[in-house]
Design the sequence.
């Protein structure tokens, strides 16, 4: 199911040229801020939770997910070169799966790893906070990559729609309407973090753990299946 | 009759041959000149920012976002009318700052459409083969972006003003609020149009421009918000930290000069010296973004 050539091409498209710089800038920023806060404030569990939960998991992971998930297939569909890929004797589902593996791998490397480093810098993994947020970031990376990869096959405005979801639905709507939190990748991954971290870490999620795992699985499998289905009957649209 | 059958023209007549006149006519009407071209570029870009004059599909997103930014204002007004409140629940500048994610997405959708697509389809050399110059192009695009953003933020403010008058709130006070809100919207639009325009001019890919604009507008904002929450209520760091992102910069300006409530943690306001620093950074950022944008178009080939 995994196709090495497709994987190599996707990897090159994702990390080629300036995209890699943008992807590097965010984790670097997180680690620099973590170092600065540690130097000024000392180790503090609450500050760690605020920074990793409020900044890393809430904005950085979704943004990297949008860039990697849509970037894995979006530009190809945009400039029409996807027809050369689709005309090869490779199953459409394996194209999607390969791209999903690469996109989520890139997202994990650029979001979960820096979160782990930042967590260690901030409080030396006291109460397992660093590990908890790393697991949450990794799981969220997978889910975001799958969702935004599907969006990229469905619409040419996938980046905007993905950003609307990440910024407006999760950040703005989620804080106003509590029901919106049930359908938020961030809350699902926070449920995992809540389970891993110590009781005093003040990581809370609005979704119960079993529900969160089921919803995560449904999101990943469902959106990959839908993306594969969509790729079977892809029509190339012109520039508006 | 096929041309090779014709007899060769005598040598004496060959000198009198002219290039065939196939009916092109020279233009002798009025030439409208640079300022007209600049104005046309401005209006077309401004219309394009709301999808006017473009396909129905590209009207959907700007209009939808415009509705999203206006509806809460109408709801606030309706609540004030029915509950007979003495003042509106949210101030003008606060309202704009609250809806920053929506404004950011609008800007990210509009700026690459206005600027990056010209680079992608290589239409900029065509513009520069007309009477307009580099400065005119940049000025027109920047003005159009600022105007689009100003309309986007000022209309909700206007809705709240009209609603407040309908709810029979104090006329003088509300007019003062309106003036402050309009000034804030103008400052907000100038700064954000400069930043987004410059980023959009860096890349010919629209998707990349969208992502880059959103990242520059939101990541520093969320980061500064998270950092400001760390020190205690009586720390002076909060005010200085606010200089770090466009959103918190605008927040500091409105709370120290335009009489709004601060959105900073513990409602902290920048003190006198910090307020001056806010203004300085604002001017530096806006002018800097404009100069960088002009510099981007210096090379003729692009």
Sequence:
């Amino acid at each position: 199911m995994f196709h090495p050539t497709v994987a190599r091409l996707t990897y090159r498209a994702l990390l080629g040229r300036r995209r890699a710089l943008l992807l590097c800038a965010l984790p670097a920023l997180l680690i620099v801020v973590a170092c600065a806060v540690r130097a000024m404030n000392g180790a503090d569990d609450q500050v760690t939770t605020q920074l990793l939960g409020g900044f890393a998991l809430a904005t950085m992971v979704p943004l990297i997910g949008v860039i990697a998930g849509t970037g894995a297939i979006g530009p190809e569909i945009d400039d029409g070169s996807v027809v050369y890929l689709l005309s090869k004797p490779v199953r459409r589902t394996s194209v999607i799966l390969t791209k999903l593996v690469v996109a989520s791998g890139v997202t994990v490397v650029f979001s979960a790893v820096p979160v782990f480093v930042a967590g260690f810098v901030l409080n030396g993994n006291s109460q397992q906070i660093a590990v908890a947020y790393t697991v949450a970031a990794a799981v969220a990376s997978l889910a975001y990559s799958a969702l935004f990869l599907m969006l990229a096959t469905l619409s040419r405005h996938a980046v905007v729609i993905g950003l609307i979801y990440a910024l407006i639905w999760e950040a703005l709507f989620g804080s106003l309407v509590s029901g919106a939190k049930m359908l938020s990748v961030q809350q699902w991954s926070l449920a995992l973090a809540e389970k891993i971290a110590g009781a005093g870490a003040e990581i809370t999620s609005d979704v119960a753990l079993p529900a969160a795992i089921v919803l995560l699985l449904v999101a990943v499998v469902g959106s990959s299946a839908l993306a594969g289905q969509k790729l079977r009957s892809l029509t190339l649209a012109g520039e508006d | 009759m096929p041309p090779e059958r014709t007899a060769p023209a005598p040598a004496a007549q060959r000198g009198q041959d002219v290039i065939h006149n196939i009916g092109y006519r020279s233009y002798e009407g009025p030439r409208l000149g640079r300022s007209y071209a600049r104005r046309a570029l401005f209006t077309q870009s401004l219309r394009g920012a709301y999808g006017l004059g473009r396909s129905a599909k590209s009207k959907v997103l700007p209009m939808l976002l415009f509705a999203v930014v206006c509806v809460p204002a109408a709801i606030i007004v309706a609540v004030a009318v029915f509950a007979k409140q003495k003042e509106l629940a949210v101030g003008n500048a606060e309202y704009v700052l609250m809806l920053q994610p929506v404004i950011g997405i609008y800007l990210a959708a509009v700026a690459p459409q206005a600027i990056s697509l010209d680079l992608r389809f290589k239409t900029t050399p065509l513009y520069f083969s007309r009477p307009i110059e580099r400065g005119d192009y940049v000025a027109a695009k920047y003005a159009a972006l600022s105007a689009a953003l100003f309309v986007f933020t000022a209309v909700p403010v206007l809705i709240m003003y009209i609603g407040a008058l309908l709810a029979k709130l104090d006329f003088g006070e509300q007019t003062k609020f309106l003036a402050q809100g309009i000034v804030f919207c103008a400052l907000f639009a100038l700064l954000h149009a400069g930043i987004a325009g410059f980023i959009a001019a860096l890349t010919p890919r629209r998707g990349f421009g969208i992502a880059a604009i959103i990242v520059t507008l939101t990541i520093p904002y969320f980061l500064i918000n998270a950092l400001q929450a760390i020190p205690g209520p009586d720390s002076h760091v909060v005010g200085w930290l606010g200089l770090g992102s466009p959103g918190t910069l605008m927040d500091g300006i409105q709370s120290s000069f335009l009489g709004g409530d601060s959105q900073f943690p513990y409602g902290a306001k920048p003190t006198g010296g910090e307020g001056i620093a806010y203004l300085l950074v604002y001017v530096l950022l806006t002018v800097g973004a404009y100069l960088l944008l002009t510099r981007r178009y210096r090379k003729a080939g692009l």
Summary: Chain B touches chain A at residues 54-55, 57-58, 61, 101-102, 104-105, 108-109, 203, 205, 207-208, 210-212, 214-215, 218-219, 222-223, 225-227, 229-231 (CB under 8 Å).
